[in-house]
Amino acid sequence: MAASDHTDSTSPRGWTPADSLGHGALKGVKVLDLSRILAGPTCTQLLGDLGATVVKVENPKSGGDDTRQWGPPYVADADGNRSDLSAYFMAANRNKRSIALDIASPEGQAQIRRLAAQADILVENFKPGGLAKYGLDYASLRAEFPHLIYCSISGYGQTGPNSSKPGYDLMAQGYGGIMSLTGEPQGQPVKAGVGIADVMCGMYATIGILAALHHKSQTDEGQQIDLALVDAQVAWLINEGVAYLNTKQVPQRRGNEHPSIVPYGLYETSDAHVILAVGNDSQFRRFMEFLGLEGLAEDPRFASNPARLEHRDALNDILIPALKRFTMDAVIAGMEARKVPAGPVQSLDRVFASDQVAAREMAIEMQSGVGPVQLLGNPLNFSRTPVTYRHAPPQCGASTTEILQAEDPFADS
């Protein structure tokens, strides 16, 4: 590995990179990453953070992972030229080394099979059947590499009438129903501000792989994991999905309000917006005390959460003007003093300037091949096997020669 792949300063979590190579719950696990964009790379970055060695395969003809071109912003090199490290790419490709291979060529296919022979896990997000023509699908590799955990991520899954259709995050949010729940009641359906369907699919993929690793540790048997963006998105409809299944009533968009709790949402103060999460009746009584509206807590329309749900609009007609008499800071301080959940809506500059983010080390710096890059931290905190930041997001094909010529291509040194 080139020296530029390593951060050269003490990591935010208190160890140096050289020390960190001995850590990680998944140290020794070998991952062959044929995925691109966000769902698969999110999964493999998580595995890498947990100590696994990840070799990312990119197509040299296309310039590598699609997200390398999804900018601005991009990191500039020492001469001020745009590199292939976009912010989008860097968000999901830490702790990987990149090799450039044309899997459409016999030579590229042979190299993939050599890597698969030594890997524990292969992650891919080609359209179903897309790797069969190269002899790299699960059916083709299973007999030769029965130990291999083969995770296939696609838009709609390997089966079903939509299996041949391409899948992107926005389409999954639309097809899977979450957009129908998001937005103002009289406005358009609205997607989440980030690719949450992709990210959650990557999370489910990680969970599935860890379960398959446990099975493999007991049986030495690999298997295929078939995961769809749409399936993952449907799964995290959670209470709204279960409510529909049991009532057959289609839920309506409520903007920032909660379908089952009132008051719970975004309210305007005299100078900003504040989030209130009044989760039970005792909290509601303390909230009314702060507003000087103690009598409302005894009003039969508002005395219990079911009653408040029934009279949501009437309650909001009282709360909205009452809250505008206070500043956001006054509301938050008053709620905290009364142990009622409340908080601000922070822009990202305030998020990353906060003492809380600094204390939890959720922003990190690593040294890439083109200079320092700023990244999000991993939220997992282990007492014995901490996450490690060993490799900055790589430039396309930066480790091709080193890895393909190595006796052990997954040696993480």
Structure, explained:
Strand 12 (363-368) and strand 13 (371-376) form a beta hairpin. This protein has a six-stranded parallel β-sheet, sandwiched between helices. It folds into two domains: 3-236 and 355-405, Rossmann fold, CATH 3.40.50.10540; 273-344, formyl-coa transferase, domain 3, CATH 3.30.1540.10. It has 17 helices and 13 strands. Helices cover 35% and strands 15% of the residues. The chain is an alpha/beta fold and 413 residues long. It starts with 16 loop residues before the first helix and ends in an 8-residue tail after the last helix.
The N- to C-terminal Cα distance equals: 6 Å
Q: Please tell me the overall pLDDT.
A: 93
The CATH topology of the largest domain corresponds to: Rossmann fold
Question: What is the CATH homology-level superfamily of the largest domain?
Answer: Crotonobetainyl-coa:carnitine coa-transferase, domain 1
Q: What Rg is obtained from the alpha carbons, in whole angstroms?
A: 25 Å
In the residues, how many domains can be counted? 2
Number of helices: 17
- What helical percentage do the residues reach? 25-40%
Layout of helices and strands, plus pairs?
Elements: H1 17-20, E1 30-34, H2 39-49, E2 53-58, E3 74-76, E4 82-86, H3 87-90, E5 97-100, H4 106-118, E6 121-124, H5 138-142, E7 149-154, H6 169-175, H7 178-181, H8 196-219, E8 223-228, H9 229-235, H10 238-247, E9 264-268, E10 273-277, H11 281-291, H12 305-310, H13 312-323, H14 328-337, E11 342-344, H15 348-353, H16 355-359, E12 363-368, E13 371-376, H17 400-405
Parallel strand pairs: 1-2, 1-6, 2-5, 6-7, 7-8
Antiparallel strand pairs: 3-4, 9-10, 10-11, 12-13
